[in-house]
Fold EamA domain-containing protein.
Amino acid sequence: MNSLSDRRLGIIYTFSAFSIWGFLTVYWKWLAAIPSWVVLAHRILWAFIFMLLVIALRGQFRGLCMKTVWLIHQPKQLLVVFAGSLAISANWMLYVWAVGHQHVLDASLGLFMIPLVSMLIGILFFKERSDAWGWLSLALAFTGVLLVTVHFGVVPWLALSLAATSGMYSFCKKIIQLDALIGMSIETLLIIPIAVVVLTVHTYATPGLQTAFSGTTALLLIGAGILTALPLIWFAEGAKRIPLTMIGFFQYMTPSSAFLIGVFLFHESMDRIQFLSFLFIWCAICIYAWREVSRNAAGKRSAHASL
């Protein structure tokens, strides 16, 4: 496959992944009648089963077993992976809860903040340097959060929690780098016991559950797992083929979709202060994206000059 075709395939994979992540906002609305922690348990269980099937078809089952055994003999690394599993599980549950309780706009604010939180983690924990533009983007994001806090007298915990749990997950992934598919399989494997306990307790505590979870609902719950795993696989394939800066622009599809869905499809209200808060966040994101593109272009020029 030539480089142009490979790049196009990468764009298709990446666009498809982020399109599904954007569509999930509507998908969770269809499951709003089910407690978010039950949806999360189903999502983990069926995602794990689906990923096992994909791994078996790709002939990577031996690699999964070897990496799992290696982690068992490395308690510190295993603890980091488990912490990442808890962080991403909390992130998933928060978002499902947000959609079911008419807080999509709050959730989209948190999703917009994720790249900036990742940058802050890099500065604080990995000694990554930031220029004036980077600090300006962080300052604008902080101003946006502060506006909402002062206006409503309440810290936007949902948005901050979504950004923080995603940042925590990225932090763990930075420390322990695993193949995307195998890593996700191990992460869900570690959290499977909790999911099984949740589903077992919910089954015995809810009369008539088999009738309630039959037909369309059952298919939606199984599909939740597939729609969790599939975009991760596509994203991994796309990341191999296109530049990181292009991926950086794709990543804003999900919060943008959530915002538009919240306003135009779910008709969530937004006052002037909330809009102004989003405006600060959007400005921060624009500066962040411009900064990343400029740094990437400068790196390419430097690389060409050294040849």
Notes: The mean pLDDT is 87. DSSP finds 13 helices and no strands in the chain. Residues 3-306 form one domain.
